Amino acid sequence: MKICVVGAGAIGGMLGVKFALAGHDVTLVARGMNLRAIAEGGMRLRMADGVELHARGVRAAASIDELESQDVVILGMKAHQVEAVARGLPRLMHADSVLLPMQNGIPWWYFQRLPAASGARGFEGRCVEAVDPGGVIAQAVDPARIVGCVVYPAAELVAPGVVRHVEGDRFPLGEPDGCETPRVLALSEMFLAAGLKAPVLGDIRSEIWLKLWGNLTFNPISALTHSTLADICRFPISRELAASMMREAQEVAERLGAHFRVPLEKRIAGAEKVGRHKTSMLQDVEAGRDPEIDALVGAVIELGAMVGVPTPHIQTVFALVKLLGRTLKEDRVYIRAQQRAAA
Q: What would the mean pLDDT of 56-85 be, rounded to a whole number?
């Protein structure tokens, strides 16, 4: 298959290596030093068990504008980066192309193609402003192209063209309308043949919430405290804060018809088991990048307001991370001004 991964960071790079070594025609869309490294020497993946995989044959591109149509388009960037590429995505599609968004948090398509029995039917077609202001992405992307995907592995881009796999291999898939289609089954087989697990689910939105349950708590708390998953879970006060945020999110999700197949304490224990892993939001903050807060936290607050569920703990943490993001941005502006003045 012809596969394009837009955003060759940690997860995008990991998938690019896996699919390329499974025999697919893979193009990685990247930028800067990462783009140059991939173009010159391919992409490397250091597995958690110490094995290093090297996909020399992957192609590198600076923009989707350079590409022809693809069989599968994987969006591997952060949620707030999707809008920048949304209008160009239709040109990558032929009649049977599939789009796999892999953003954490509530996706822009959450209220599109709802199952007939969904508890959220009253919100069919509703735009999630926190992740898609004005519905720009929804207007550009045909919802019939989308197959939902939840990303469980943890990985880090440790150097240009080099990804370190921390743990996990599950990428649950599901049609937004809950149907078991030939294309979603084919995608599942594609992941399996690449050494990954991709069970097909009839309720992908409940799985989104299960993953988000951890992301909306551990990511912002780690970014604010510079602590790892194990640190947060083993310190009683921060563990209870995470649990309070999770309880609020659970009520929002259940009002929208979602179900949690794992108890709250077991979900926290699973995060603790990952160990001293830095969340992606903490990695972003340490690198001076904007924290990915709107899709993970802001969207839950928005949905809570829609269904009449108060989210005081979530709102407090959201406010703090938004302030942190503004401070980081101001610091970047100040540093660039100082550098220009020195030059």
A: 96
Options 3.30.1540.20, 3.40.50.720, 3.30.450.20, 3.30.565.10; CATH of 2-202: 3.40.50.720
- Catalytic-role residue among 211, 266, 278, 329: 211
In CATH, which superfamily holds the domain spanning 205-333?
A: N-(1-d-carboxylethyl)-l-norvaline Dehydrogenase; domain 2 (1.10.1040.10)
Active site residue 211: yes
The residue written with tokens 């550098």 in the block is 339
**DSSP-derived secondary structure for 108-137:** TTTTSS--TT-TTGGGTT---TTTSGGGHH
Residue 165: other Cβ atoms inside 10 A: 23
For the record, the structure tokens of 87 come out as 């209008």
The single-letter code of the amino acid at 195 is G
Banded pLDDT at 308 (limits 50, 70, 90): very high
The torsion defined by the Cα of 187, 192, 196 and 198, in degrees rounded to 10, comes to 50
In a 3-state reduction of DSSP, which class is residue 305?
Answer: helix
pTM: 0.92
Query: What is the C-alpha to C-alpha distance for residues 311 and 301, in angstroms, rounded to an integer?
Result: 6
